[in-house]
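Suppose a classmate hands you a notebook page containing two proteins, each written out with its sequence and a corresponding row of structure tokens. How would you begin to make sense of it? This section walks through that situation. The first entry is reproduced here exactly as it would appear on such a page.
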Amino acid sequence: MHLKYACALSLLVAAPSWAQSVPALFDVTGVRADDQLNIRTAPGVANPVIGGLAPDATGVEVTAVSDSGGWGRINSGEGAGWVSLRFLAQVGAQNWREGESPLRCFGTEPFWSMPIFLPSHRIEFHAPGDGGFELVGDAGALPTTAFPPTLAVPFSGMKEGMVVIRENAACSDGMSDRLYGLEAQVYWRGDTVGLSGCCTLGD
């Protein structure tokens, strides 16, 4: 086998299996107690450091993985940066498409927020002027698609409808340089205009 193709194959084999299931949550590991995990402007140690994660940081959301599989993109402050995946350990083996992870979806124009407390049935909806209200979402075997990866969560209560969540490694909140790994569309039964925004893991 030609050396070039052998190297490419070895990179593919070495790539971690979870690289296909981001966004996911990770804990920092293997960093000295007096050091930090550097956040860089782009994948690679030659790129400038723009911040750092504490050696005991937990619940770090990786929203994208570099082409090499060795770097993960995270949000920090008002922007996004890259950290070495050598120093991150995935929290559990849950995939957001399995409907087992809490999600918080949100958007602007108008501002809205929808925490989805999977795998329970509870959903909240908040928007300026409405005071917020609770919804009852389906849980368990939720509708999904594989190509592209999506998850649909039907809900009922004060309003009926569905929120559809899909991969989008460049989802922007429109107000910062942060980049999220999931986008959402909220459809209300009987309304011709829905909502669009991004989602992050956790509640």
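The notebook's second entry, a different protein, reads as follows.
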Amino acid sequence: MELDLKKPLIFLVVVIGIGWYLWANYTAQDVLKYQHKNLDPKWGPMVDYYIGVGYLTRSEYEPAVNAFNQLLTDFPTTQYTEDGLLKMAEAYQAMRKWDDAKAVYQQYNEQFPDGKYKAIVQRKQDFLRQR
């Protein structure tokens, strides 16, 4: 049995080519703007969330907050809501915007009283009480 690698290789080259084109011509902000104007409940929450995570990973906290805020505003009840709230609060905390971080952690507790990050949020709130 011979393995035909032509189709997967062509697919990979096309995907890489499209990725390079998008990277060279569009920014994450462009994608967020497009997503906000063309709300797509299937892909939108994932796009907003992962753009926010990307910014957070690069320590670009203000754009991360904006992406998570867009997620929570446009799609308030998705599989990304819980994680988005936590990461948004962490971004505020990294910017030393203590009151904003406290408010988002409080929102997390109200929306997810038994959430998977309940213990983490509690520790972060205890830390912020000192601020």
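A careful reader of the second entry would note: The chain has one domain: 27-128.
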